[in-house]
Design a protein that fits this description.
This protein is mainly alpha-helical. The protein has one domain. Helix content is 25%, strand content 5%. The protein has 3 helices and 2 strands.
């Protein structure tokens, strides 16, 4: 079955596409690429479990000059 051929109700209801299901063994699938993303993390890795749920961290720019430029300030 091709990647994305079936979409669950929760995927259809989420406008941000925050829920993704797919085949992790298919390296070309969307879920596999997201699973390997450097922002991807699992909860409680210290328990040595292998959860299938992964989360993506938000991108934040801590550089003060760039943050001020986004807010319209000058330095």
């Amino acid at each position: 079955m091709p990647d994305g051929a079936i979409e669950t109700a929760c995927q259809q209801a989420c406008p941000t596409e925050a829920i993704v299901f797919g085949d992790l063994s298919d390296k070309d699938s969307r879920v596999s690429r997201l699973h390997e993303d450097r922002r991807s993390y699992a909860l409680l890795p210290e328990t040595y479990t292998k959860p299938r749920n992964r989360f993506l961290a938000r991108i934040r720019n801590p550089h003060p000059k760039l943050a001020a430029a986004q807010q319209g300030g000058h330095e």
